[in-house]
Amino acid sequence: MDLKEKLTASFLAFENQVDTDTYVHDVRNEAIKIFEEKGFPTKKEEAWKYTSLNSVLKEDYSVFPKKENAIEYNDVKKYFIHDIDTFNVVFIDGKYSSHLSQTTHDGLDVCLMSSALTKPKYRLIIENYFNKAATKDSLPSLNTAFSSEGAYIHIPKNKLVQKPIQIIYFSTGNEAATMLQPRNLIVVDENSHVQIIERHQSLTDNPVLTNSVTEIFTNKRAIVDYYKIQNDNQSATLIDNTFIKQKQESVASVHTFAFGGKLVRNNLNFYQTGERIESTLKGVTIIGDKQHVDHNTLVHHIEPNCESHQDYKGIFGENSTGVFNGKIIVEKEAQKTNAFQANNNILISDKATINTKPQLEIFADDVKCSHGCTIGQLDESAMFYMRSRGIPEKEAKALLMYAFSNNVLSSVKIPEIKQRITKIIANKLGVNIGFDL
Amino acid sequence: MLKIENLHASVEDKAILRGINLEVKAGEVHAIMGPNGSGKSTLASVIAGKEEYEVTEGDITFNGEDIHELAAEERAHKGVFLSFQYPVEIPGVSVTNFMKTAINETRKAKGLEDMPAKDMLKLIREKSELLEIDRKFLSRSLNEGFSGGEKKRNEIFQMAMLEPKLAILDETDSGLDIDALRIVANGVNKLKSKDNAVIVITHYQRLLDYIVPDFVHVLYNGRIVKSGGKELAHELEEKGYDWIKEEVNA
Ligand SMILES: Nc1ncnc2c1ncn2[C@@H]1O[C@H](COP(=O)(O)OP(=O)(O)OP(=O)(O)O)[C@@H](O)[C@H]1O
Ligand SMILES: [Mg+2]
């Protein structure tokens, strides 16, 4: 039985476990039909031309966690941003870990999707928002069909959330292979501001396939800063489907730091449904070995006077491959749109590959759109300059690569994240960069 | 300190240096002049260890040690410094962070611990004051968007920080206004001692009024074709290079 058959066959059993008398029940049923019909994407689809899931799908995944697993905080502390006070919503093999979490209902909700999906007091929000931003593509639909757990965050209006919220998914490798379907819903009401950090971390070398969906709604003048730290084991695959629906004057940014995993696919979609919206999509990718990272972005400009900024930097070593596919749609009504996209790449090995493709569909006439992509090697004259000052080749390379990614790092608003990322970069490059930020 | 014998160097099979002989002793200042394209920057780069240039013949020794196989950073650790004719822009690395890295890597190579942050700050303050460099400047990306003169002043700031044994200044005077020229020359002179040496590459007598050379060499077509005292620079300023070219071609 292949994975698709296994999943569709388990759906009934899954549905029986959960409350069937809800709005979500119908959504799930519709979603499994879509997945059944479309199946896993293949390279024949334009959006998956450079990313094949074949090697990932052949594992025999357990699709539900069989038992609850526990881990000690001290063993996983390093995966937390722990030097500042944060809310934490933590999952182990897809199940909520109250032990590692710090949630709240005090003036805002930072809690669990499983409660939101079942408790009457969340019903209105669920009916208004759940699956209202996600597309009907096969992988988001698969997630929707099996959605039962994840982070649920609701920030009511006029609230500046002081502590960042960390959403962390651990997998213990207690099963030979695990498939996870995390589902996050984040609703930020008028004038509120929140910062969120998301991470998926496998703790062993057993294969993990995560097909995650995050829906984010930013209401009028809301501000959301979202950071994705992807630095997983070589046996972990992440398909991240993130959908952000913005209302007027809201400001949303997503920074994606892709350093690891076997295969990572980021489907990041922004929908601007109001005027004077700002959307920022930034990313740093540093990979080697046979790693594969694919950034597939969409910014849909629907209303006038909005802006979007995309800036993705990639450094590819050894046999790694990168994909950047950035689509910008500017609808006819979206006059005075300002859309910027840049994708710069450095190949530090002859065997590394990058496929980069901007796609612009512009139907309005009074817009400013710019896009550019570059693929290059490390600047030799800069290398000699640094080495002539006594900085050895390896460190000079690292410094150049760090400098290359610095544009993206400089817009990170949480200093502890910036420090953490700098450390990961230094680690990746096998050097000790001689300064802190 | 530096001894170059019959040095030939080429890039992509094109010979640029064709038999250079030069000896620089501790405490000396040498000026190298010569027409555009004669090989002055190439000589500087070869001494500093730029791999792009292939040494096809000859020897370079530094304090008695053959350095021609050494990497650029190893030469730097031994005390060779090149002030670039065209300093390279490195966006994303601040002047301060760059210098901290350079100093600590040099210390590491000598088996020393990192310089304590306090001492580093003090050193940076002291040397930036010497070259009248504004503090704000130090947090900017290295050379990015610096004016021509700012870049050159920054090179000498780096030299002051690293305190090399042999400093090669490749057209450090070009792009400097009159005040900056004085400040930079003053900086170089402050760092001069009987234990170190300077090679000044320049087109103009002006700089040599401040940094007075013990020897002046003329490089033409990849060879040192004439050497003399500081009066040779005056002669060149007056008469140009034609008479030398004629002498050589005769
Ligand atoms: N990397 C290179 N590739 C090809 N040619 C080179 C390279 N480097 C130097 N040359 C050539 O070698 C010759 C000497 O160049 P160099 O820069 O050393 O001259 P210079 O004496 O410093 O001139 P200037 O006074 O204009 O600075 C020139 O003809 C130059 O074009
Ligand atoms: Mg030159």
Short description:
The complex is a heterodimer of chains A (437) and B (250). Chain A is α/β, with parallel strands linked by helices.
Describe the SSE topology:
The complex is a heterodimer of chains A (437) and B (250).
Chain A: H1 3-17, H2 23-38, H3 54-57, H4 73-76, E1 87-92, E2 95-96, E3 109-112, H5 113-118, H6 123-129, H7 138-146, E4 151-155, E5 165-171, E6 178-180, E7 183-188, E8 193-202, E9 208-218, E10 223-230, E11 236-246, E12 251-258, E13 263-272, E14 278-287, E15 292-301, E16 307-316, E17 321-330, E18 338-347, E19 353-362, E20 368-376, H8 380-387, H9 393-409, H10 415-428
Parallel strand pairs in A: 1-5, 4-7, 5-8, 6-9, 7-9, 8-10, 9-11, 10-12, 11-13, 12-14, 13-15, 14-16, 15-17, 16-18, 17-19, 18-20
Antiparallel strand pairs in A: 1-2, 3-4
Helix pairs in contact in A: 1-2, 2-7, 8-9
Chain B: E1 2-11, E2 14-24, E3 29-33, H1 40-48, E4 54-62, E5 65-66, H2 72-78, E6 80-83, E7 90-94, H3 95-109, H4 117-130, H5 135-138, E8 141-142, H6 148-162, E9 166-170, H7 178-191, E10 197-201, H8 205-210, E11 215-220, E12 223-228, H9 231-239, H10 242-249
Parallel strand pairs in B: 3-10, 3-11, 6-9, 9-10
Antiparallel strand pairs in B: 1-2, 1-4, 4-5, 7-8, 11-12
Helix pairs in contact in B: 6-7
The structure holds adenosine-5'-triphosphate and magnesium ion.
Number of helices of chain A: 10
Largest sheet of chain A: 10 strands, mixed
The arrangement of helices and strands of chain B along the chain is EEEHEEHEEHHHEHEHEHEEHH
Considering residues with a beta carbon less than 8 A from a beta carbon on another chain, report the largest interface and each chain's count: A-B, 27 and 38 residues
What structural class is derived from the secondary structure elements of chain B?
Answer: alpha/beta
Question: From the coordinates shown, what is the CATH architecture of chain B?
Answer: 3-Layer(aba) Sandwich
Q: Write down the Rg of chain B.
A: 18 Å
For the biggest sheet of chain B, the summary is:
6 strands, mixed
Q: Could you spell the SSE succession of chain A in H and E letters?
A: HHHHEEEHHHEEEEEEEEEEEEEEEEEHHH
What is the tally of beta strands of chain A? 20
Number of helices of chain B: 10
